């Protein structure tokens, strides 16, 4: 049997769970050209240009005052007046998994389609699925609602006023609206960090917008449950390098503004490339596009055999997620592979 036939016979489920599976892709497509172009993650291909760090940052545990300085810098960037409501965490994926012990024995609704981690966070709880159209109905029968805004993977955005109204309804029953704002840095005007009141809890990611996902840095913005998250995570929630780089990045408003413009322009260029090669755009965020094609698995394999990793989805066998190429060489390789 040929290599291509072996690939066709192999399940692609591992690539549907998360992006960034370069090791698995290399094993499955050993003849693919190197280096791989990873367009599967929704992470900016342009990272914050942090300077060399002092040896002490790696040699010592981060001080509590230094972590507080990071949380203050993040609070300022998010528009949050009280820095004590901003809790640094080692990536929002881990923080999502702390929701269950905090909200144990509560009725939970997860908005679908959406990020798979929102469902996986609840291992021992009864969870129902809701849609963005049924939020008000879900708020009448559940204690906690979890959604992403902008949504992953389709980029759907729910207006802040509507979310505030849903949160108010939940808060009246002692409930909580949990909003995953992993992609909110690009369009901060839609963020509800400034309204993280008793009825709203917000997750913010650092790695996607700043292109430094390996630092494993994120934040929880909450007035009611900040102490619960701090107690569960412990005295050293994030590493020293993440603290230093995070402080510098959140204070660098000029770089952030330039990054937003660069991502928006690159997204427009990706739209043009995809339309020119005959694909249908179905949504996305400035960090990736959601694309409809005749057979998502076939497109995935076709690009993978050319050393380009994209993301097939569980929700629809015709949908894939394609991120932003980093440079001219990557743009050219993607264009040629899509012909």
UniProtKB/TrEMBL annotation:
Domain of life: Bacteria
Keyword field: Cobalamin biosynthesis, Lyase, Pyridoxal phosphate
NCBIfam families in UniProt: L_thr_O3P_dcar
CDD domains: AAT_like (cd00609)
The protein's enzyme class: lyase
GO molecular function: pyridoxal phosphate binding; threonine-phosphate decarboxylase activity
Known pathway: Cofactor biosynthesis; adenosylcobalamin biosynthesis
The protein, known as: threonine-phosphate decarboxylase
Gene3D superfamilies in UniProt: Aspartate Aminotransferase, domain 1, Type I PLP-dependent aspartate aminotransferase-like (Major domain)
E.C. code: 4.1.1.81
Lyase as UniProt keyword: yes
Organism whose genome encodes this protein: Steroidobacter denitrificans
One Gene Ontology term from the biological process aspect of the record: cobalamin biosynthetic process
Database matches in Pfam families: Aminotran_1_2
Cofactor(s) recorded in Swiss-Prot or TrEMBL: pyridoxal 5'-phosphate
Catalysed reactions listed for this entry: O-phospho-L-threonine + H(+) = (R)-1-aminopropan-2-yl phosphate + CO2
């Amino acid at each position: 049997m040929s290599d291509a036939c072996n690939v066709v016979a192999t399940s692609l489920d591992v690539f549907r769970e998360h992006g960034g599976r370069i090791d698995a892709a290399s094993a499955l497509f050993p003849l693919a050209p190197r280096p791989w172009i990873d367009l599967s993650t929704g992470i900016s291909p342009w990272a914050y240009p942090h300077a060399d760090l002092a040896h002490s940052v790696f040699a010592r545990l981060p001080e509590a005052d230094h972590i507080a300085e990071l949380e203050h810098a993040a609070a300022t960037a998010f528009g949050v007046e009280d820095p004590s409501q901003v809790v640094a965490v080692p990536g929002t994926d881990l923080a999502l998994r702390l929701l269950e012990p905090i909200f144990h024995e509560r009725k939970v609704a997860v908005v679908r389609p959406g990020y798979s981690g929102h469902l996986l966070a609840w291992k021992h709880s009864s969870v129902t699925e809701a849609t963005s159209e049924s939020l008000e109905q879900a708020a009448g029968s559940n204690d906690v609602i979890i959604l992403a805004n902008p949504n992953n993977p389709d980029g759907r955005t729910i207006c802040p006023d509507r979310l505030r109204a849903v949160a108010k309804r939940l808060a009246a029953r002692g409930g909580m609206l949990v909003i995953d704002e992993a992609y909110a840095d690009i369009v901060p005007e839609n963020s509800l960090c400034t309204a993280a009141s008793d009825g709203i809890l917000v997750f913010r990611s650092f790695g996607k917008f700043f292109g430094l996902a390996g630092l494993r840095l994120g934040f929880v913005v909450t007035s009611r449950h900040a102490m619960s998250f701090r107690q569960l995570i412990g005295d050293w929630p994030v590493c020293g390098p993440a603290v230093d780089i995070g402080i510098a990045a959140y204070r660098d408003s000029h770089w952030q503004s330039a990054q937003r413009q660069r991502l928006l322009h690159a997204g427009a260029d990706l739209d043009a490339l995809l339309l020119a090669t005959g694909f249908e755009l179905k949504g996305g965020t400035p960090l990736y596009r959601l694309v409809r094609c005749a057979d998502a698995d076939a497109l995935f394999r076709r690009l993978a055999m050319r050393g380009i990793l994209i993301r097939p989805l569980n929700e629809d066998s015709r949908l894939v997620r394609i991120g932003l190429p980093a440079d001219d060489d990557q743009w050219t390789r993607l264009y040629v592979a899509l012909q």
